[in-house]
Amino acid sequence: MQLDFITQFLPPYISGFPAFGILILRLIWGSAMVLYGWTKVKNPFNWMKEEGMPEFPGVLQLLGAITIFGGGIAIIAGFLTPLAALGIAGSMGIALSIHWTIFHDPFVKYPPNKPGPSFDVPFVYFAIALMLVFLGPGRLSIDYLLFG
Fold first, then answer.
1. Rg (the chain; Cα; Å)
2. Largest CA distance in the chain
3. Per residue in 31-47, pLDDT tens?
4. Which end of the chain is more exposed for a tag (fewer CB within 10 A), N or C?
5. Is 134 helix (H, G, I), strand (E, B) or coil?
6. Residue 17 near residue 142 (C-beta atoms within 8 A)
7. Four-point Cα dihedral 102, 121, 76, 79, nearest 10
């Protein structure tokens, strides 16, 4: 398989000042994903039980933990960014469905400083992931060095 076949599906690499903005977003959001995934990686087969969520098979919990933690590292480096972001979007999509269908959490608590859960944070994480899938990592990334 030729490399051109794969790279035709990648978004164009944004350059200049906007690339610096994408880098800052990747560093901050990728770090958040690594820290968010770290608690899951420490107990990869049972982390949902600790967080009071419904029981999922251990293998699926392991895949979720690896996707979030490893995807965060890939996002920071800008390595296979659309693929890593797509994996994180899938994990956040599952988190959103749990908040909506099982817990019936509100989008934002009212008042916002009221204690309790809401699904605004996983929704924003989902949106950032989709943005990186379609926008790409920019020229300040390993992806650009390898495929640009």
1. 17
2. 55
3. 999 999 999 999 889 88
4. N
5. helix
6. no
7. 40
